[in-house]
Amino acid sequence: MSVGTSNAPGGRRGTGRVPAPRHGDLSGLGIDPDELPDGLVVADEDGLVVCFNAAAARITATAAADALGQRLDKALPLEDLEGRRWWQLTDPYGGLAIRVGQPERNLLLPGGREVLVSARYVRAEPAGPVRRVVVSLRDTEARRRTERSHAELIATVAHELRSPLTSVKGFTATLLAKWERFTDDQKRLMLETVDADADRVTRLIAELLDISRIDSGRLEVRRQPVDIGAAVGRHIQAYVAAGQPADRFLLRVEQPLPALWADPDKVDQVLSNLIENAVRHGEGTVTIDITATASPREGEGHEHAATSVTVSDEGPGIPEESMNRVFTRFWRGSKRGGTGLGLYIVKGIVEAHGGTITVGRAPGGGAEFRFTLPVAAPAYLA
Fold first, then answer.
1. pLDDT at site 317
2. Pairing outcome for strands 249-253 and 286-294
3. Strand partners, 307
4. What pLDDT, in 10s, does the model give residues 220-229?
5. What is the 3-state secondary structure (H, E, C) of 69-136?
């Protein structure tokens, strides 16, 4: 355990653990500071470091042996984003006696590395002298990854919105300026293009809202009885009506199926995305198998059955090295196009139902997506 004691204000370093555990000490709880996921630095009443755990050593690139017994401002030389020395600025030992600490903020280590720092001033009595300064350190890399992901999302959506909005603006401006010069067929073609582009914008906004709800855990599921076989049939009929050959689709429904309670709109969204992927990126026959299966939720008995839907094609499939990235944001596979958010949303919808979704290689060599939904029931029938 990276803990030592200070015997004198001069900074001589002791060799033992923190003496006589008091109420709230980690040693009194049987916890080694090195087991903590965040950096922990503790200075005593003289401002000398008595605890410098493994996470703090990793984040600051300073060995615990070099930090223990040093003054806090020397062991942890922090600056704010304007280059001011943090401990001189905050003065934990000589500042206002009513202060209890510092809220989390971004500070800089030597070399410009950014860390998240918060501090607690421990006093034996209110407004009394500071007995300990407890500092928490966190690496900013996870936050940076999140910020980069959000920036990518904004950039992707902005790029996808620009094309249809440019088209809508161009056609409407042309029609308004030169309405009399166009034939009825030309006007119809322009208006149909505007209508299709407006639908595209609507879908993009819906995707953005779905991602926001999934990330915040606020995706609502309104359960109703769902005939999953009929829902798949409607999607197939729509593709056939749009010009796809009817024999490209094979629907196999195992009977009997358990009664499925799910959100019909969201189930349609999942089916639409998976079947569209198979049609656009796959080849040969698109096979949809619907079967009864065990519940994907652990610890549930046989009475809690589930419905499983498998969508497969006979195309080149998904490379093995990409399998673990299929359900992440912006994954588009070998063919570019779209936002790359569809499968991320599909996974969020399935998991919001308490289900699971997997990807693999189909018997015919193409991609195979399989999602399983527990039959469940609406709250008022539970």
1. 83
2. parallel
3. 292, 373
4. 889 999 999 9
5. CCEHHHHCCCECCCCCEHHHHHCCCCCCCCCCEEEEEEEECCCCCEEEEEEEEEECCCCCCEEEEEEE
